[in-house]
Amino acid sequence: MPRIVSKFCSVFAITLATILQFNGSALAAAEMQLLGKTSAPIGYVGFCKDNPRDCGQYTRRDLVVKLTKPTLNQLNTVNRTINAAVEPATDMDIYGVVERWAYPALKGDCEDYVLLKRRTLIQDGWPASALLVTVVRDEVGDGHAVLTVRTNRGDLILDNKTDVIRLWSDTDYHYVKRQSSEIQNAWDMISDNRAVEVGSIRR
Questions:
Q1: How would you class 64 by CB atoms within 10 Å of its CB: exposed for 0-12, middle for 13-18, buried for 19 or more?
Q2: What would the pLDDT profile of 159-175 be if each residue is shown by its tens digit?
Q3: Which residue, 110, 121, 176, is CA-closest to 150?
Q4: Domain of 168: which CATH number?
Q5: The pTM is what?
C-alpha cells in the first residue's frame, strides 16, 4: 500500500474510533450550539434564485444521520472525489464577479465545493436537513465555507482544504453561521467559544 494511502487510512481509522467513543459531555461538545436566526449569505440568496428547486422546503426536517463505518466511508469518498475533481479558483477568476455561489464544472470557490458535495449526498439518499452549508473564518481570518454533516455522534466537517473529515470542534476555524436544519432558507448563528487558535481572527 502506498505510504500516502496508508497514512490516510490510519487517520481515518483513528477519527472513526475517536468519534464513536464519544458520550456525555464529549458528545455534547461535538454538536454545534446555535444562538438564533440570522441573515443568509448574499451568495446563497443568489444561488437560490438560480436554483429554486434546491432551496425548497425540507421533506424531512431536523434529522441527523446515524454514523457507521459505511456512512463515514461514503462521506470520505464524496469529500475526496470532489476535492480532487474541482480546481480551486476565485469567483472573480471564474465569473468576473466578487461573489457568486454555483455548482462547479471544472473550477470552483469553497462554497461551490460545498454545494456540489451537498447535492451529491442528497442524490445518494442523505437527508438534506442533515447537510448544512456553513460559513466560518479560517486560520487567517478570511471567509470560508464548509459542509456540516449532522450525525448522532456530532457535527462533521467536509472541507475542500483537506481530505480528512473532522468534528467541527477539532478544526481551527471560527464558526459564524449555518443553514437551519428546520427551514432550508433560514440561517442560524453559531455559538463558538472554543479555546482554539483563532484569537486573532477578524470577527
A1: middle
A2: 999 999 999 998 999 99
A3: 121
A4: 3.10.620
A5: 0.85
